[in-house]
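Key result, reporting period 2: structure in, sequence out.
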């Protein structure tokens, strides 16, 4: 089978099984499994693969209770195992209960409806069909709790929140939110039914689904969400103070601010997540010029070109026209005036230092992370500020379409992203990040046709990275990676269609323009 026929890759949030690991995976597993046996030559399987990937993404936080996998029966090495598991048509869906014996060959799911919401609900039913004996260890109870169990908790202190979702008996939202929070500590989610009148009376609940929150200090209240949707409930519960994603083992290394140059001040700087801070942007440039580029003793060829283009880009698009722009303009003029094929990097540093000393042109003399502060050294910092800088630049390019005229910068409809791509590939200290970003750019940057799409491409790519890194070692527990902007930052950015979360991209664009726009950049903590 050629690689182009591979419908699923390691980047998809599902398990790719084969003859060698199918049985070990599903035998006596601590989780249930929902598998698709497909064939890479079957047209329907090809069409369906996007839905299956979206399903896997939708339930990726449930994997300790139920895992999603695929097995390609068109691969020669899998012929025998597909026969043994009695696969005659493609795709065939089978599920395996947790703790299945070795002889188990799976129960077929023959439902005609294969849309995400329906399959997800089938997965919930499969979990609920377990008995007390074979219940998946990490799966919390999905049964409804009664008022007799819940009301005594009111007023009690606890070491965690308890969220009670009260809903109609046929609603799946409660159980879905229970599973969405499975990987999070600090909150326990319980389901209760709208038929339980003593509970409704005591909690004064009149609409369904509703969430009632018992706080660790014994107080309790309704939880306000803008839309009564699964995504909103899960998202608000995940961001309660003290609620944290449990770190999952991951191969990716933590990418933080780097040890070479640390933020000097250890006192916490208060900030608002709805603002962007000039201090972070200045620190990004400071780190980039003094640490990241300084590891290159000379710049030549593509490196020199990328550096020149980066400086030109920032000088033209950095908002506000302050000292950063002056410094970048000076650097840019100087670089363009030098006909040299190679430049010792020390000369760049000398220029930056001299320029700053003589003319008072100023770029923060130290790192000052604000919106990019990490809860400990090594988290957030520089990579956070680099994302922020490029989001600001894409939005500024959208706001000032002619800013890059006559600069010679190439890149068609996406000049900012092309510079970012080349910068990340050439200089960004995290090689793995560079490889991932390059792969994404190579796959879809060509499709960007205008400045709006340039803004949205970067937003979308950043969310893909957030998704991949959630719960990894580089995930700061105080600032957990999650789809951004959250409902509390932008409720109108989120919709739901057929039970599946959907972005409202028009509103996302409006939000990005506002959030990363010049007037939302706070000078607080900047020098
Ligand atoms: P960040 O992800 O750095 O985000 C910074 C801020 O941007 C957030 O606080 C939020 O305010 C805002 N934001 C979040 N999401 C979005 C969005 N979708 N659109 C707009 N704004 C948003 N680390 C790895 O371990 N592996 C990798 O492969 C990897 N690849 C990377 C590729 C690039 C190009 C970059 C710049 C960084 C990469 N990193 C990678 C680092 C990682 O993405 C984070 O930057 C780092 O872990 C710090 O995370 P953070 O919590 O500060 O949030």
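The corresponding designed sequence is given below.
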């Amino acid at each position: 089978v050629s690689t182009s026929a591979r419908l699923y890759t390691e980047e998809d949030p599902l398990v790719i099984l084969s003859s060698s690991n199918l049985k070990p995976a599903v035998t006596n597993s601590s989780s249930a499994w929902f598998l698709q046996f497909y064939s890479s030559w079957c047209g329907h399987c090809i069409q369906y693969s996007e839905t299956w990937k979206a399903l896997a993404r939708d339930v990726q936080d449930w994997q300790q209770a139920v895992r999603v996998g695929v097995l390609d029966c068109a691969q020669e090495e899998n012929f025998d195992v597909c026969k043994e598991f009695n696969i005659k048509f493609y795709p065939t869906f089978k599920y395996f209960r947790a703790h299945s014996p070795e002889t188990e060959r799976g129960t077929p799911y023959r439902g005609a409806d294969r849309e995400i919401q329906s399959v997800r609900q089938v997965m919930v039913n499969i979990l609920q069909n377990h008995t007390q004996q074979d219940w998946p260890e990490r799966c919390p109870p999905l049964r409804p709790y009664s008022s007799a169990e819940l009301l005594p908790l009111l007023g009690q202190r606890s070491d965690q929140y308890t969220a009670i979702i009260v809903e109609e008996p046929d609603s799946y939202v409660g159980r879905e939110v229970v599973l969405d929070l499975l990987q999070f500590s600090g909150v326990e989610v319980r389901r209760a039914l709208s038929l339980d009148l003593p509970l409704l009376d005591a909690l004064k609940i009149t609409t369904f689904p509703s969430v009632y929150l018992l706080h660790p200090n014994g107080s309790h209240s309704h939880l306000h969400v803008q839309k009564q949707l699964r995504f909103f409930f899960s998202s608000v519960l995940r961001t309660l103070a003290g609620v944290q994603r449990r770190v999952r083992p991951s191969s990716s290394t933590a990418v933080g601010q780097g040890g070479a140059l640390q933020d000097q001040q250890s006192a916490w700087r208060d900030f608002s997540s709805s603002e962007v801070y000039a201090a972070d942007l200045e620190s990004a440039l400071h780190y980039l010029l003094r640490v990241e580029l300084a590891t290159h003793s000379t710049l030549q060829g593509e490196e020199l070109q990328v550096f020149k283009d980066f400086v030109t880009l920032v000088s033209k698009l950095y908002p506000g026209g302050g000292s950063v722009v002056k410094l970048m303009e000076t650097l840019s003029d100087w670089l363009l005036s030098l006909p040299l094929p190679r430049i010792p990097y020390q000369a760049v540093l000398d220029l930056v230092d001299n320029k700053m000393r003589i003319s008072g042109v100023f770029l923060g003399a130290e790192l000052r992370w604000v919106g990019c502060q990490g809860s400990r050294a090594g988290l957030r910092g520089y990579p956070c500020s680099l994302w922020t800088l490029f989001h600001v630049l894409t939005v500024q390019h959208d706001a000032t379409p002619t800013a890059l005229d006559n600069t010679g910068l190439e890149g068609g409809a996406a000049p900012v992203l092309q510079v970012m791509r080349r910068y990340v590939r050439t200089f960004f200290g995290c090689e793995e990040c560079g490889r991932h970003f390059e792969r994404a750019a190579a796959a879809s940057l060509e499709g960007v046709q205008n400045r709006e799409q340039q803004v949205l491409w970067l937003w979308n790519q950043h969310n893909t990275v957030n998704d991949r890194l959630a719960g990894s070692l580089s995930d700061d527990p105080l600032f957990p990676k999650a789809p951004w902007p959250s409902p509390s930052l932008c409720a109108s950015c989120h919709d739901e269609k057929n039970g599946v979360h959907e972005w409202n991209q028009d509103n996302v664009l409006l939000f990005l323009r506002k959030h990363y726009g010049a007037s939302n950049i706070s000078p607080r903590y900047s020098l």
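Confidence is low (pLDDT under 50) at residues 250-254. Residues 252, 255, 372, 380, 383-384, 386-388, 391, 424, 430, 432-433, 436-437, 459, 462-463, 465-466, 469, 474, 476, 479, 481, 484 surround flavin-adenine dinucleotide (CB under 6 Å). This case is discussed further under Risks and Mitigation.
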